[in-house]
Amino acid sequence: MEFRRNLLAALLASATIMPMYGDNIKDNVTLPEMGTITGRITDADRQVLPGATITIDELHTGVTSDVNGFYTLANLKPGTYKVKVSYVGYEPKYYTVKLTGNNIERNIQLSESHELKEVVVTGAFYGQRKALQMQKETMGVTNVVSADQVGKFPDSNIGDALKRINGINVQYDQGEARFGQVRGTSADLTSVTVNGNRIPSAEGDTRNVQLDLIPADMVQTIEVNKVVTSDMDGDAIGGEINLVTKNTPSHRVLNFNVGSGYTWVSGKPQLDLGATWGDRFFNHKFGIMAAASYQYAPGGSDNTEFEYEENDDKQIELKEAQVRQYYVTRERQSYSLALDYKFNPQHKISFKGMYNRRSDWENRYRISYKKLNSKAEKQSIVMQTKAGASDTKNARLELQQTMDYTLDGEHLFGNLKMDWAASFSRAIEERPNERYASYKYNNKNAKINFGEGFEDVGDRQPYYAASLPALDDNNWKLDELDNANQDIVENEWKGRLNFTLPITNGLYGNTLKFGAKYTSKEKTRTKSFFDYDPEEVLGDSWRNLTVQQIRDGFMPGSQYPANSPFISKQTLGKIDFSKYEGTENYEEEAGNYKIREQITAGYLRFDQKLGKRLFATLGLRVERTDLRTSGFNVEVTDDESTMKPTGDFKNHYTDLLPSLLLKYKYSDDSSLRASVTKTISRPKYSALIANKTFNISDEEATIGDPNTKPAKAVNVDLSIDHYFKSVGLVSLGLFYKDIKNVNVEWSSNKYLGSDLGLTGDNAEKQFKVEQNINAYDARVLGVEVAYQRDFGFISPSLKCLGFYGNYTYTHSTTRNFNERLGIKEGDDVKVAGSPEHTANASMFFEKSGISLRLSYNLASAFIDQMSTSRALDRYYDKVGYLDLNASYTWGKKTKFTVYANANNLLNQPLRYYQGEKNRTMQVEYYGVRLNAGVKINL
Q1: Which residues touch 267 (CB under 8 Å, ≥6 apart)?
Q2: Which candidate among 15, 606, 746, 837 keeps its CA 20 to 30 Å from the CA of 398?
């Protein structure tokens, strides 16, 4: 608390002293009163132009417009100035301003560059020029995708849109991108923010927001900052993905979207609706923008999973196999509201709010072949149904919600600019009445060796060659009946205060920026889980309650048992569990926790011009983290289960994060950038809970540690880029990261109980342990190449064709291994979550309102989870996605667009493997997704 009080006191004192200091100078020396020019840059359609360059050449000074098109030229002496405004694809515009010490507002409208023949303002990259202009003007390495460009790809959520960006890889769930990885680092090392605010996660064990919560049409711009400056959060080793929501317009806006779609698995129609409205009132002082999106998508997947283990002779054996049929209906809702009020050119306030809600109704039908490497009498087959209550469509409902509400302001006091913000964010996951029912083949009497009946073991698709025992076989017995409720809530309160002071103008002008930020987070996970007697609830006639599942056309192969009997979802949905007495399952509740984290940060940033073409940014950020956690210790035996609170555990640490960025503009359209920065990544929440869970019977353990260290990295970046006048670019980048204390999910099949603190008979038992640990230090070296351009430079008739491509190569090495990993000399261990190759390629055709785009996305395999044996390490397999979309737009003032999209044309599955590429651990197919619709822009 003392650190935070001192930091805030220093900031407030600075804010108070600077105006007083300025007044004192005026009392003793007669100085001209300095003036300021403010305004907003728009195009002929009154669309805002972010990243526009506004310069006064005679003073060798200039600024760029922000993401909403606003600019401020401050610290100007009285006089007459010629101001130049330039933008990619537009005619430069000049205007003259006479300053008499007052502040002047001047809004500028640019016209498309019809007269400059080398500037192509139509064609394949027309919608991307705003993004390219923003990239061009940044100090660090940033990739920007505008809403116009997002709309050119067939992407339903933000995650799918991100995979088109250079150096970005995404991981999938139910056929949609859920988490983003930047520059060969795991998703946990990347920060996801909305309007610069890091938003909380609705899941229990990760910090990152689920990208499939947010529809792609709800953002104005996607910014990927691969180099962070001191005025940005330091928790971003991979980088920062910033989603800029739709902001208040400069004129009236009204858009609608109506669409539908289809997927292979469900065979049911989808619905896609969207609307945006905005306007300005009260002589343009008050602005409003409201947007809404609704998507309803029945879908599902076909899945098989396999688990291998290593025996005492170091041989790999198949332990368990599963066949899974998923039916998932996904409903996604998103709403945003932006308000602003401009008191005068020097003072304005604004509000931004966004609410996202995703409901997944899921039914799963699973066949499990268990203990296949044991004696026949210990082997079994389990037929399990996952469902929910009748008021959740007889399906397990996973309701995830995120929201972020921010009130902020910008104020000019002479030359001193102050901006502030206060925000509240919340993430919620609710799983009410999640129900499981299963029946099991008791093999003690039949002694069928299911393991010997498996074919292609160790290959991509092992399967049980014989038929399942008939349902009327008396060895089938009811096995389990469970009902669970889970709630995860994370609340975040944030406040920030920044000051920006231009010190001098000219060829060697400079600016000082400083500020502070305070973040308070609280997260809880509460799960209740009860086991019930299935015979009491379902009765002796339970066989009559089954239905046929595992659909015909099951994509992993026809060798799996289609049309197998499972207890119906309707049976589970109508059960009233209040009529029965259940037994609390402590092992399932062991992950409950409460965590509070407070982050207090302050920074200095100094921007210096070093002549006409060289720019430098020097910064220092200080972040103090205070942590308090509590959870439960659980021990499960054959006879009883115990669950005891861990009590509170506290921890704190402080990080100094310096940064140096250089930018050399060797021409008006070309830049060379170099930077050295230091960043951190805090461990995921589940790793920080001081809990231990032991299942003595199954010899399994899960462990957390509040002293798990954050990862820390020194990042070096070097890049060169050139922007074509015909709207395009070519770039080359090199990056290097030296990361300490990398956090990795670790699993060991054999760990002595005595090493885990157990005594007596349990001390010599060998446990399967799962834990997130500081596994090693790492170095990541990479190369990024990007090229995008239409073909008009070959022949003017080809400007309707274009190419968009990028490629990233990442090489990683590890050292200083945690001894629990069992790393041997000669083992080549790559960084977890680091694909060696990622690439995107798109071909375009745009002419006379017709737009066609064929896109391919590639990522190579990477290690995802480590074990004590390299043969059991888990890998995320390589992926290749092919997508196609087409549209036709017509109209002038009112524009109409009809579109059609096809995703995953190659039917790329999600696949994990253990140790070797052919040893499948999980493979899940989603099929092709199709959708079409119409957009109206009034």
Answers
A1: none
A2: 746
Which of 216, 132, 171 is CA-nearest to residue 899? 216
Measured CA angle at 106 (ends 102, 107), to 5 deg: 155
Task: Supply the pLDDT for residue 721.
Answer: 94
Could you report the per-residue pLDDT of 508-532, keeping only the tens digit for each?
Answer: 999 999 999 999 999 999 999 999 9
3-state secondary structure of 764: helix
CB 162 within 8 A of CB 855: no
pLDDT of residue 648: 92
CA distance 766 to 749: 8
Rounded CA gap, 822 and 618, in Å? 42
DSSP 561-621: --SEEEE-HHHHHT--GGGS--EE-HHHHTT-EEEEEEEEEEEEEEEEE-SSSEEEEEEEE
Q: Do you know the residue count of the chain?
A: 938
Q: Which of 39, 29, 123 is nearest to 73 (CA)?
A: 39
Cβ 626 vs Cβ 656: under 8 Å: no
Lay out the sheet containing 197-198: strands in order across.
Answer: 142-146, 219-225, 239-245, 190-194, 197-198
Q: Dihedral sign, CA of 151, 153, 154, 160? A: negative
Global pTM value: 0.88
**Strand partners of residue 747:** 770, 867
Instruction: Give me the amino acid identity at 605.
Output: R
Question: Quick one: CA torsion of 462, 863, 929, 403, rounded to 10 degrees?
Answer: 130
In the numeric block, the tokens 């922000």 are attached to: 66
Q: Cα separation of 74 and 189, whole Å?
A: 37
Distance between CA atoms of residues 15 and 6, nearest Å: 14
Q: Is the pLDDT of residue 407 over 80?
A: yes
Cα separation, 729 vs 724, whole angstroms = 6
Query: DSSP for 767-806?
Result: EEEEEEEEEEEEEEEEEEEEEEEEGGGT-GGGTTEEEEEE
Element (H, E) at 626: strand 614-630
Query: pLDDT confidence of 61, banded at 50, 70, 90?
Result: confident
* CA distances (Å), origin 416, targets 30, 223, 456, 807: 19, 27, 72, 43
**202-237 burial by CB neighbour count: b if 16+ within 10 A, else e?**
bbbbebbbbbbbbbbbbbbbbbbbbbbbbbbbbbbb
CA distance 545 to 539: 10
Give the whole-angstrom CA distance, residue 629 versus residue 597. 9
- Note whether 751 and 773 are within 8 A (CB): no
